[in-house]
Amino acid sequence: MNNCMRCNRELKDPTALYGWRCALILGLDKASPTDVTIAQKLLNHLGYRDNNGRRLKEDGVYGPKTAYASRRAMKSKKKKLSFTQALSNALARYDEFFRIRGGPGGRGPRTLWLTREEFEVLSKNTIELQKWMELNGFSNYDILEDDWDRETYGPSAPPTTTPLPLLYISNELLQNLGWQASIDEEKLNRLMDEHGITTKELKAHFLAQITYESNNGTTAHEQYEGDSEFDYFRKYSYILGNNGPEDAEKFRGAGYIHLTGKENYIKFANFIGDQEVVNQGWRYVERYYPIEAACWFFDRFVIYNNIEAGDAGIDYVSSVVLGQDNGSYAERRRLFWKALDLLG
């Protein structure tokens, strides 16, 4: 037997330098085939996929597909706890407590138990927290101490229910906004949350733009007018990092908010950890990353603090997404106000 060079835990495989957990942190290329296989099973179980959106082969081979999935997993681990995730965690903990005790969670005064990390996140927006507590029937909240937390809950199965986050965007809401297609709503809400699109107003802005840009959810790439798409996209030939008409067509707008131009494709590919975005161009983004591209673009280019109230703020966001008004600003305003109303 030998020990992990990082944490000094005993290893089952005498050829390994690191256990699979440490290898995942440091890079699975440092792990034995046995540990890579375990890590691949874990990544599949947690929902991390290869750069083509497929499950990993659990073969113990550390190749580019496993590397891509492990990078995504470690990137997500580094993200700070969000407001909606903190609420979801707390409500799941409440439900779990009563499931273990065998009693109903909705009887009597309801207290929300928060970890210190959750409290720090939620206390920054006490008005939203109070609104949420009233809607869900909670009268108070307490901060958990680590030792008390372990003593109360102990090792238990994950919660049986997953609460919906605050201001959840459902397919039903999108259809009421005019969408004619369904979307992976769990992914949409998770990515909006990760990119800071969390307030009612920001969500309304985002929904207005993706609804217009995607033609009510029916397409995730820029349409062209006229007889030749090659001629239509020629106007992008030498801007946004493009180097000729071939680039202009290859890196046309793609995603529910249109990612456009080679330089933006390169930046997005580096962010998402998938160079096929650049190698294959708009068709690849439309197929695999329509939501990711929209959230990334909105987060990167819309300066949230610059959004004024009313139509001026809507026009600012539209100018970032589109540029000069091509006649669509008025419709984007209408979609914003409708989305705001639907969000309640």
Account of the 3D structure:
The structure is a single chain. The protein has 344 residues and is mainly alpha-helical. The protein has 18 helices and four strands. The protein has helices spanning 20-26, 33-46, 64-77, 83-101, 116-122, 126-135, 146-153, 171-177, 185-194, 200-213, 229-232, 245-250, 262-272, 276-280, 282-288, 290-301, 311-322, 329-342, and strands spanning 2-3, 10-11, 111-114, 140-143. The strands form two sheets. A two-stranded antiparallel sheet has the order 1-2. It has a two-stranded parallel sheet with strand order 3-4. Strand 1 and strand 2 form a beta hairpin. The longest helix is centred in the N-terminal third of the chain and has 19 residues, at 83-101. 33% of the residues are buried.
List the helices and strands and how they pair.
Elements: E1 2-3, E2 10-11, H1 20-26, H2 33-46, H3 64-77, H4 83-101, E3 111-114, H5 116-122, H6 126-135, E4 140-143, H7 146-153, H8 171-177, H9 185-194, H10 200-213, H11 229-232, H12 245-250, H13 262-272, H14 276-280, H15 282-288, H16 290-301, H17 311-322, H18 329-342
Parallel strand pairs: 3-4
Antiparallel strand pairs: 1-2
Helix pairs in contact: 1-2, 4-5, 10-18, 17-18
Brief write-up:
The chain is 53% helix and 3% strand.
Give the amount of beta strand, in percent: under 5%
Name the overall outline: flat
Structural class determined from secondary elements: mainly alpha
CATH architectural name of the largest domain? Orthogonal Bundle
CATH class bucket of the largest domain: Mainly Alpha
Radius of gyration (Å): 23 Å
Whole-number mean pLDDT = 77
Described by strand count, sense and barrel closure, the largest sheet is:
2 strands, antiparallel
The share of residues in helices is 40-55%
H/E element sequence: EEHHHHEHHEHHHHHHHHHHHH
CATH topology of the largest domain: Lysozyme
**Domains counted in the coordinates: how many?**
3
**Number of separate strands:** 4
